[in-house]
Amino acid sequence: SSELTQDPAVSVALGQTVRITCQGDSLRSYYASWYQQKPGQAPVLVIYGKNNRPSGIPDRFSGSSSGNTASLTITGAQAEDEADYYCNSRDSSGNHLGVFGGGTKLTVL
Amino acid sequence: QVQLQQWGAGLLKPSETLSLTCAVYGGSFSNYYWSWIRQPPEKGLEWIGEINHSGSTNYNPSLKSRVTISVDTSKNQFSLKLSSVTAADTAVYYCARGEAGATTSLYYYYYMDVWGKGTTVTVSS
After folding, report:
1. Which of A19, A48, A66, B84 is deepest in the core (most CB within 10 A)?
2. With contacts defined as CB-CB under 8 Å, which chain B residues touch A44?
3. Greatest CA separation for chain A
4. What is the pLDDT of residues B45-100, one digit of tens each?
5. Are the CB atoms for B47 and B63 separated by under 8 Å?
6. Interface residues of chain B, partner chain A, Cβ below 8 Å
7. CA-CA distance, B118 to B95, in Å (whole number)?
8. Do A30 and B107 touch (CB under 8 A)?
């Protein structure tokens, strides 16, 4: 079982805003990182730290955090944003172990 | 631009040892966590473990008894060995570069910004 909990599936109408959430105790002290994965491809980092985007990631992707919940927001979702999204952090044990959420499948309608 | 190139055997029999290597091109090997992640068919990502340039390791407790991650700094490479494999170890295995640290707001950060393309490993008799 994962120490980070995500909704299995979320849908959004084209051009609308969607929020994908990730819950876990470690998120009270760790920023979540977020990864986009399309079928047959390796994951791609889209958000890290407080709200940082790697080079090449569109600014419609943003991140936020409150308490034990981290959120990835896509403002003006595009068809190419349809993918699986995973959150990631250290776990809450204090032993510097990595952990992923179970993933959220985003469908753009 | 940093790139990770990974390779290793793709078909194993039960009880054999999985062995994968990841080479780091175009960047420093120091000050990062060099990680392995796997993804079983139609399932999510699972963190296997990591090593830093000085050889300090962290492993997923569920795999710790079977996993060894090592580093060869002279070649800018790191490797994964997973012993006594079973069908449950069938997955795509990724190597990745990780960063971790503390911010001024007393929050910590941890992320993996560069990934290999993945190696499909199948365990079958």
Report:
1. A48
2. 115
3. 41
4. 999 999 998 899 999 999 999 999 999 989 999 999 999 999 999 999 999 999 99
5. no
6. 35, 37, 44-47, 50, 58-61, 94, 98, 100, 103, 105-113, 115-118
7. 7
8. yes
State the burial class of residue B23 (Cβ atoms within 10 Å of its Cβ: 0-12, 13-18, 19+).
Answer: middle
Q: Nearest CA to B73 among B57, B59, B54? A: B54
> For residue A85, which of A13, A22, A28, A15 has the smallest C-alpha distance?
A22
Please give the structure tokens belonging to residue B25: 């091109």
A28 phi and psi, to 5 degrees?
Answer: -75, -20
* Residue keyed to tokens 């393309």: B117
Q: Which residues pair with B78 in a beta bridge?
A: B22, B71
Report yes or no: A60 and A75 within 8 Å, Cβ to Cβ.
yes
- Alpha carbon distance A50, B107 (integer Å): 9
Model pLDDT for residues A84-97, shown as the tens digit of each residue: 999 999 998 888 89
Of A29, A30, A102, the CB nearest to B44: A102
The residue with tokens 């078909």 is B11
